[in-house]
Write a structure and sequence with these properties.
alpha/beta, Nucleotidyltransferase, domain 5, 2 domains, 6 helices, 10 strands
């Protein structure tokens, strides 16, 4: 398959192009730089692969949860490219991609995927690999680090350890991100399951509705000791 994958939900923006069995990838600092750098980087990678946008079978993107700005960037770029090229899009949960990145790195098959949600919280979801695909247990949660539930014998994976390591449960920890190459590995099964949608379906998954605290809320948070 010919696929373009991209994720801008974290502090790293990642893109990858698959042409048949060949994969080319590019990663760079995310945040404010992503919106300006993403499209030129995609164009360069497609040129290196010898592909044009209409030759793609789908554009795969991390839909969230994650940075509000990053998710809007990914969705708007995906929509624009897909509308112009008349190709479908494949939304993928970023925490699922974190679990897949951890499996690729160290072989873990039962993972609580975590992403730093800022504001003293993490996004979390539990995934189990059944040999051919991932099954999520429960819903995606937004919670304080010390409230994350990790079943015995399960690993934690993500980018939340530097900020919240002392407050997270004990256990195996794997640094992982929703990389574009993880999205590519997930794509065939998701496409086969009929999860591709038209370009207009490139929409973000928001778990948090509020991205800023009032002055009073920030003062109350500072005054409350961490458990």
């Amino acid at each position: 398959m010919n696929l373009l994958a991209l994720d801008t939900s974290t502090e790293v923006f990642a893109i990858a192009v698959q042409r048949g069995g060949e994969v080319l990838r590019h990663e760079a600092p995310g945040g404010a730089q992503a919106s300006a750098a993403l499209i030129p980087a995609i164009q360069r990678l497609l040129a290196q692969a010898g592909l044009t946008l209409p030759e793609l079978d789908a554009i795969v993107f991390g839909r969230g949860p994650g940075s509000f700005t990053g998710l809007r960037t990914a969705c708007s770029v995906t929509q624009g490219l897909a509308f112009g090229a008349k190709v479908p899009v494949l939304p993928v949960d970023t925490l699922l991609a974190v679990a897949e990145d951890a499996r690729s790195r160290v072989g873990v098959t039962r993972v609580v995927a975590l992403l730093d949600a800022r504001m003293d919280q993490v996004y979390a979801a539990a995934y189990e690999w059944n040999g051919t695909g991932w099954q999520r247990h429960g819903e995606i949660a937004l919670d304080a680090p010390q409230h994350v539930a990790v079943p015995p014998g399960w690993a934690m994976a993500g980018n939340a350890f530097a900020a919240y390591g002392s407050r997270l449960p004990a256990g195996q920890r794997v640094d992982a991100l929703p990389t574009a190459t993880a999205l590519l590995r997930l794509a065939p099964a998701l496409l086969a399951a009929g999860q591709a949608v038209p370009a207009g379906g490139a929409l973000p998954l928001y778990i948090r509705d509020k991205v800023a605290q009032t002055t009073a809320e920030r003062a109350a948070a500072r005054a409350t000791p961490s458990p």
